[in-house]
Structures are given as C-alpha cells and as structure tokens.
Queue: 4 jobs
Job 1
Amino acid sequence: MSRAFTNEDAAGEALPEHRYPLPARDDPAWPLAAARALLAGANVGDSSGAEEATGLVFGAPELVPAVRLILADARSAADDRLEQLAERFLRRAGVETGQVP
C-alpha cells in the first residue's frame, strides 16, 4: 500500500476508552466520571471520543445530577471554563442554568 493512504498520526492515538478511563458502569462513581469525561472531551474538541467512551451524548439527561455537582464545584472554584461547559451541557439536556445551584 502506498504511504499516501496511511494515516501515521492516528496510528499512535489512544482509543476513547483509554483517553477517558471510566469505572465499571455499575459503580456508583460512574455517572460523575462519565459527566467529567464528556466535559473534558468538549473542552479539548473531542466530544465524539468522549461520547464513544461513555456511550452517552453530550447533554444526556441521566447525567444532569452529576453535571449540576460539577457546575456547583466550578462556580465555587471560579473555574470559568468548566462552568461554561457544564452550563452548555445542562442547556443541551433542556435544563435552565440561570438558577442551577
């Protein structure tokens, strides 16, 4: 095969489950870890990789409680970027973010 048809940059790229390590799905920590993975993926422009690793889309309603916790932490830590991403996630899930604690 000609080298023109190979993608050498992707050859060493980690699979989504390695870029976004998650506990077992039945682990009580999974929703928070999945929410963090989706927000981290969005932060680096890899939403599709994070979605593939978690099996959920950005804005998945089942992660709203976890994202609300992350948003509260981001606000108390004055982490503007994480706050912005969490608010965007909640809006996509259909949650009004103005009064989210």
Note: The chain is about 55% helix and 0% strand.
Job 2
Amino acid sequence: MADHPRGALPWLLVAASVLLLAICLYLFFGAYVPAKQRLVRLESELKQVYAREAALQSKMAQQDKSHSLREQQQAAMTAERDGLVKRIEELERELARSKKR
C-alpha cells in the first residue's frame, strides 16, 4: 500500500474560511444585533403610542358623554323656556282681556 503523503492545506482555502468567518461575525454583530436593538426600541415606542392612543380614546369618550349630556340639558332648558314663553303670552292675553272688561 502506498502511503499518501499528508498534503498541506491550501492557503486559499484557509483564507476563504477566515474571510467567511469574518463575514459571518460582521453580519451577526455588525448588522443583526443593532437591528435587534432597534426592533426592541421600536416595539417599546409602539407600546407607548398604543397607551397614549388608549388614553386619548377614553378622554374623547368622556368628552362625548359630557357633550351629549350638555346637549340634553340644553334641550330640556330650551323646552322649559319655550313653555314659559307660551305661558307668559297666555297670561298677557288673559290680563289684556281682563283690563278690557
């Protein structure tokens, strides 16, 4: 049997492996980690925006409720005022008739 002499590793293969390792490390630490951190910041900001929107929605609902209550009160007051105006007119006519007699 013939002994196969152990061949030396080709330097091109070693250089390519090192270059591949460097690219992988760059992609992981140079691109992935900052992107992941940015994603966490954006998710946090999104939660804050949703919380602010919920607060504004509840405030708007309270204002709508208050506004509708004011409208109802105003309508009731207008109806009461109209009733009083009619009653005053009736009383004035009655008074005018009484004075004519």
Note: Helices lie at 11-100.
Job 3
Amino acid sequence: MLVLSRQRDETIMIGDDIEITIVDIRGDKVRLGITAPNTVPVHRKEVYEAIQRENREAAKVRMEDFGALPRPGVPPRTPGEPMRPGRSAANLVSRPSQAPADNGSAPQGAAPINPSTEPKNQSGPAPEAGPAK
C-alpha cells in the first residue's frame, strides 16, 4: 500500500485518467473528490461489497427457477401443477426477435413521406407583397 500525505486542495493522480483531490478535512474526516472516466466504476467499499454479494447471489439462479415466473398471456402455474406444453424452463429464455427487413417503407403506424407535401426549404428573404387591389 502506498501512503501519501496531502493537504487540502492537493491532488493524487492514478494513471492518466483518475484524479483524487482532498476537498476538505474536518477533525478525523477527509472529503475526497474523485474524477474518473465513466467507464471506471467508483464506489465506497461497503457499496462495492454489497454489489459483489448481490452478483454472486444472482449467479446462483437456475433455469428451473424461471418456470415459476409469470409470462404475458399465459395464466400462472399453481404449485404442484405439471408444466404445460410451451412452459418449459428452456422456453423461458428470451431470444432476440428477427428485425423486419428494411424495404424503404415508413415504420409501422407512420405515414409515408410524400415529397410534394413536404415544406420547401426557401433561401433568401420572403417575397414582398404588392399593393392590395
């Protein structure tokens, strides 16, 4: 462990991207300002440990556990009821849908663009109106 002494408003650099600045010192508390890229997570240690603990718990989930989750349009399964066709745990894994082919048409629900009705981009000043008749 590297131990450094710093005073208020002094900075420590970690690599080229991370700055730690001593913002304030009050009694036995030091306030730090940390500047780091968005790609570098910065957490208090107790928060970091809680995230790690939750990740370990989430990694223990089995595919069978998904069978008890409700699915849209399918009535929930009651305890002890056998799995119905189409309700196996393997079918509950989401699969990416196939995107429609781009055939140049407007998106579903959108009106197609008609070039004759589109406003024209006029450059220069608007024409002046002549005297009223």
Note: The longest strand covers residues 18-26.
Job 4
Amino acid sequence: MLALRHPRHLRESVPLSLEDLACVILFAFFAMQGAIPFIAPAQSLEMTGSVPTTLTTVGGIASQALANLLILILLLRRPRLLLHQITQLPWLLLPALLAILALASAAWSLDPLLTLRRSLPFALAGLFGFWFATRYSLPRQLAIVRFAMLALSIATIAIVLLDPALGLDHSPGHAGDWQGVFTQKNACGRMMVLATVTLLCSPARNLLRPGRLATLGLFFFVLLMSGSRGAWMIEAAVLVLFILLGVARHSGQRLRLVLAAAIPIAAIAIGTVAILDFRHLAPLLGREPTLTGRTAIWTQVALFIAQRPWFGYGYDAFWRGMQGPSFQVAAAVHFVVAHAHNGFLEIALELGAVGFALFALSWFRGCLALWPLWQRGSIYRIAWPLAVLILIVLYDLDENTLLIYNGLFWILYVSALVNIEHAREPALGKLRAERGARRMGDLHHTAAHTPREILESSPKPAPYVVTPVQELP
C-alpha cells in the first residue's frame, strides 16, 4: 500500500509524555463513546443488554465529568496557545458557530435541560480538537491517535476471548461478529477503518517496519472479525483513495489537475448509479434494500424536519424513546429509534437548515483550502485531513457520527480543519510566488541580472556596413 512521506523534521517517534497519554485516554474514551462496560449508561447497556441501574447512571455521569475535567486541564495548561490560534484562524468561526448554535438551541429545545447538559460537552470536545491540532505537529497527532486505536484493538481481542458474552454482537443475524469494547460491530468496524488510515498516512519508510506492518495486520484482522459490511466497503474506498494520493504524489501538476476533476465526477457517477439501482446492488453487498429499516426512518425524519426547518428541535433533544415526536417515528417503523441513521438528516433535525449550512460551509471550505497544497504536490499534508473529511461523509450516509457530544469524529473534524488552515497559508504564499514568476517569464528575470549580463544577453544589432560612394564621372 502506498504511504506518504513527511518532512524529516516532523518526527512522530518521540516517547509519549504525560500530556500525550492524557490525549490517548481521551481519544480512547471518545472512540468508545464513553461505553465503559457496566458503568456508562446508554452505550454500555447496548453492549451488555442489561437494564439501567444507579451504578450505570452515576458511573456514566462520573466518567463523562472526568473526561471533561481532563480536557479543561489540558486547555488551561496552554491558554495563550489557544487564544493566539483562535485569532489567527478566522475560518474556524464556522465550526465554532455550529457549537454555539448547539448551546443556543436550549432556548427552543424540546428538552432544554438535556440540550444544555449535552451541548456543553459537545462544545468542549470541539475546543479539545482545536487545541490538539495547534499543540502537536501532524505526524505527532497521527502517532497519538494510532496509539489509542492500537490499545482499543488489543482490548477488543482480549474482551472477545475472556468474555464472549460481552465482546460478541448478539443481534439477530450477526452472531459471532465482534463488537469488542465498542457499542456494536459497526462502531468497531468504523474505528478500525480509522486506525488503518492513521498508518497509511505515516511515512513510507516507517510503514515498512515490521512493527508497523504487524499493527496494520492487527487492524485489518479486527475489522474483518467485526463483520461490518459497511466498514468493509469504506475500507475499500480508503485504499483506493490512498492509491490515488500515491499516484498524485509522483505526478506532475497537469495529471493532478486531471485527477482533481476526475475523482469527484467518478464519485458522483458511482453514487448516482448506486442510489438508482440500489435494489439490485444491495443483495450483492449483503444488505437489505431498506438498509435494515433506515429508509423508513429517513422518510419519517424528513416529515419532522419540514415542521421545524430553520432551527430544528434542539441539540440531542428529539430522540427521547417513547416520548414526544420520536414516539411517532417508532410507531411508524415499528421499533424504537435512537437517531436518524443519517448524519446530515440528524443535523437538520436537531439544528435545522442553519446548522446544516454551517456544517456544509465548513466542510466545503476545508476541501477548497486543500487546493493550493494539491497543486503543489504536498500530498503528505493533504492525506490525513482529507481522509477525515471523506470518512465523515461516508459514515454519515447511514449513521450519525458528527453531532455526538461524546463521539470522536467531531473532535477529528475540528482538528482536521485546523490542520488544513495551518498548512494552507505557506502553500498559498509559495503558489502565488510561482504564478508571479511565470507571469514574468517573458522578462527572463532581468531583475536578477547585473547590467553587464543584461547587455551581453541582449540581441546584438546587425553590423553597420559603410558602402563606398562612387565618384561621379
């Protein structure tokens, strides 16, 4: 597999400090969505199939409070760094406004206290993603996230072997699939895809080391055992992406321009064909045409979005089981629904068209800001943030991964936008300088030569020949 080289001065092999280990713990916590077995409430109950108790409720609140406290400690250790970067990156106002809108939605929420209680950790997690990207170099970020994924994959194998009743997914039709320390097999598959991305973004010379190859094999093994067909397809898309990035890295500017135009067109064409002919493609992919009832959920969700189109029902306030409007959705689809099973519909449902517009603008802004780097061939700087942007779109087609107050992808999304802005400015300056040099090409860079060199390089006039005058007879 093609990996991407980083500059030598950006090292990732430095031993982990206490601050780094704190970040590893936080990433592992958010990757599991706080699903500590027998402690965290809703998430771990989904794993264990048990009813809520006082221990799970108190344990879930305490674990989330400790995670938030750890984030605050990290932020307060370097407040000047955070404040300085906030003033230097004005385009990060878009995701900041999305978090502010989530907080403000308590004013019109179906459950104001619930919205306020969960939007505060959501905004704090976004600040952590901002701090993380400003605190560490890009290779160091990858090393920290990869270490967290390695710990989770090892823990998954351990829990499957030691406690199969907890580590295996027992939902109908999925007996034997691994969920490990995650809430379900699909969550396990998603995180293993992300884990492989952290390795594929590593320097090529590092990926070929025996330890890295063994780690990559471990991630692929857990991904395979998860049995998540959706994660398998996304992993195939990720591998194709990195092959294209490897080709672009060794190509000239013209071929990169062709790839930049061809890849979105091909993706749109494939997506259109898949949507129009999904009824026939679904059995080949091991999926039902209704995507296990998701299409019925989407129909009901669209009806409720139309009733509150601008600002939605409040952050994390719509899905309340058998209470409120979510009961009508459950009655229509004949089972209790926990979310819209589509991240884009979920944003519109909770925060309305305003929230969706903020997300869409920030996402497209991130993609456009990568353009100068793509033109210059700085593929190593593009790989990680581009992969995060693409994974969020792919995952949110049939799940909700972004608007989760204790989820990992909101943190990664904010950090990816920060990484893009950090890398964009130097590349944009160099690109403008190169364009200016090309415009001055007709002058042969005369300003860089001495007057003598200019005279010597100037075209010589034809020699003046004196024709003798004939005398008149």
Note: The chain has a mean pLDDT of 81.
